[in-house]
Amino acid sequence: MKTTKLLLSCLLMVGATTQMSMAEEKVAKGTTLGFKHCMKPGAPVDITYTTTKVKVDEVSEVNIILTTTLQSGEMEVTINLDEALTQIDEPLESIKFMISAVQKEYPIRMKVSAKKDGLYYVRLLTKIDSGNGARMRAMAVPIYVGDGKLKQKSRQVIMKAMGGENISVSKAEETITFIEN
Q1: Which of 13, 28, 124, 170 is the most buried (most CB within 10 A)?
Q2: Nearest C-alpha neighbor of 57 from the set 82, 92, 85, 79
């Protein structure tokens, strides 16, 4: 009898652990916090995100928190979805945040879905103007639909540098200032 109870207890614990790990697998998480040593120069903004992994035609919740060390200024965020993604809630293309010394985190929440399996992206282009000129940073949040694999080649333009490494071409904005003598 004791052996049966012990075996049953072990099976229940394994089942509960499996259920917990399956629940954890349904969420994708990521952050750029703590990776300052490999960050490209640009806007002083970090991203932390969570997305739910879903099946085709299910809704994925996307929770993004932008963090900055700046005390003042304005942050403009341009949001671009992959063509196969559909935004379920009110479409967001651009959001502006007034940066203050009191607030360090700036949340963005959205819901998206797709009609095909695949790995898709919500792309963000942050532009921060703190009075010393605008600085930008591009970031991407992965959205896993179905098995979450990339089934076709990306339409993003890839070029080769002289050293042989791949260079991806992304949307950018350039400001040219003429200085008069």
Answers
A1: 124
A2: 85
Nearest to 108 by CA among 141, 62, 51: 62
Higher confidence at residue 172 or residue 32? 32
From CA 100, how far away is CA 122, in angstroms rounded? Answer: 26
Q: Sign of the CA dihedral 98, 50, 91, 153?
A: positive
Cα(79)–Cα(137) distance, rounded to whole angstroms? 12
**Torsion angle defined by CA atoms of residues 62, 32, 44 and 177, in that order, rounded to the nearest 10 degrees:** -80
**Model pLDDT for residues 118-149, shown as the tens digit of each residue:** 999 999 999 988 777 788 888 899 999 987 66
Element (H, E) at 160: strand 158-160
Token pair belonging to 140: 């991407």
C-alpha 153/C-alpha 124 separation (Å) is 21
Task: List Cβ neighbours of 26 (8 Å cut-off, separation of 6 or more).
Answer: 52, 53
